[in-house]
Amino acid sequence: MIKIRNSFIGDNFPCFIIAEAGVNHNGNIKLAKELVDKAVEAGVDAVKFQTFKTERLVTGYANMAKYQKDNIGKEDSQFNMLKRLELSYEEFIELKNYCDNREIMFMSTPFDFESADFLHSIGVEAFKISSGDLTNIPMLEYIAKFNKPMILSSGMAVLGEIEDAIIALRSIGMDSIAVLHCTSNYPAALESVNLKAMNTIKNTFKIVGGYSDHTEGITIPIAAAALGADIIEKHFTLDKNMEGPDHKASLDPEELKKMVEEVRKVEMSLGNGIKTLSKSEIDTMKVARKSIVASRDIKQGEIIRFKDLDYKRPGNGLASKYYKELLGKRAKADIKMDQQITLNLVEN
């Protein structure tokens, strides 16, 4: 279990849903605030952005990923693409205040040491680490010193690399850790998801776990909730047709709202795992179950045999499983066909 602000996250607690706005504001603070508004309307627990200084994140000669080229429709350097998506620290302060006023938790992923310092300084309550930095042990150790919960995405990673990150963090006293299973492609093909790996991570490291989704639609996040995800993160946008690397793999506002509704329904249905009679089933049980009845008219004094018994609704009489208690007993009174036979109608 970990705690972020007033939210307890882990088994037996509600799934913590993060709406990943990321860079879908396209470097425009007005669009960023609109994304916050839509996240509030959807009922998520937090809205998350990405904080970076392009000069500290990427070299000038780094190529774009294939999905970025495909989604944008042109080839450029990572540097130029990211520079267009960058918000200033002043705009992030404005955005954090806006989230506070809208009463939604502000989160942002830092992509460099300076941005981590900045986010800590403005009071971010947890750090979300991108899949690309899971193996960046120096940065993980640096952020851990802020002593705030850390949520790690694990796209592109094997189990040993996740273990390396957890060992590094725990060795310096960081215990508030969650790990999200993830497939780092945008959009991710269904056959690449391997959703069962989410619980492999949870069970292997005895850790808070969840799923960061890059598939199209809402089906897989709902499935993750059904499998017991403690945290679900999903990209969303104002318009999937906007220019930018992540819009096509994101939900629109209505889809985001629908996802939250469906995840909450799944949570409600999971229960506590104890198989027992539901209060809502009591009336149905009386109607649907069967009682022991006479298969024919039985005269007083006759010995009751197996062929004299039948089992019919309603189930408010002697339960069928007690039929042996009647066999070989004499009827104390006449019993009509289809009449329920109870223990007080036979001799002891």
TrEMBL record:
<feature type="domain" description="AFP-like">
    <location>
        <begin position="291"/>
        <end position="348"/>
    </location>
</feature>
<dbReference type="InterPro" id="IPR036732">
    <property type="entry name" value="AFP_Neu5c_C_sf"/>
</dbReference>
<dbReference type="Pfam" id="PF08666">
    <property type="entry name" value="SAF"/>
</dbReference>
<dbReference type="GO" id="GO:0016051">
    <property type="term" value="P:carbohydrate biosynthetic process"/>
</dbReference>
<dbReference type="InterPro" id="IPR020007">
    <property type="entry name" value="NeuB/NeuA"/>
</dbReference>
<protein>
    <submittedName>
        <fullName>N-acetylneuraminate synthase</fullName>
        <ecNumber>2.5.1.56</ecNumber>
    </submittedName>
</protein>
<keyword id="KW-0808">Transferase</keyword>
<dbReference type="InterPro" id="IPR057736">
    <property type="entry name" value="SAF_PseI/NeuA/NeuB"/>
</dbReference>
<dbReference type="InterPro" id="IPR006190">
    <property type="entry name" value="SAF_AFP_Neu5Ac"/>
</dbReference>
<dbReference type="GO" id="GO:0050462">
    <property type="term" value="F:N-acetylneuraminate synthase activity"/>
</dbReference>
<dbReference type="GO" id="GO:0047444">
    <property type="term" value="F:N-acylneuraminate-9-phosphate synthase activity"/>
</dbReference>
<dbReference type="InterPro" id="IPR013974">
    <property type="entry name" value="SAF"/>
</dbReference>
<dbReference type="InterPro" id="IPR013132">
    <property type="entry name" value="PseI/NeuA/B-like_N"/>
</dbReference>
<dbReference type="Pfam" id="PF03102">
    <property type="entry name" value="NeuB"/>
</dbReference>
<dbReference type="InterPro" id="IPR013785">
    <property type="entry name" value="Aldolase_TIM"/>
</dbReference>
<dbReference type="InterPro" id="IPR051690">
    <property type="entry name" value="PseI-like"/>
</dbReference>
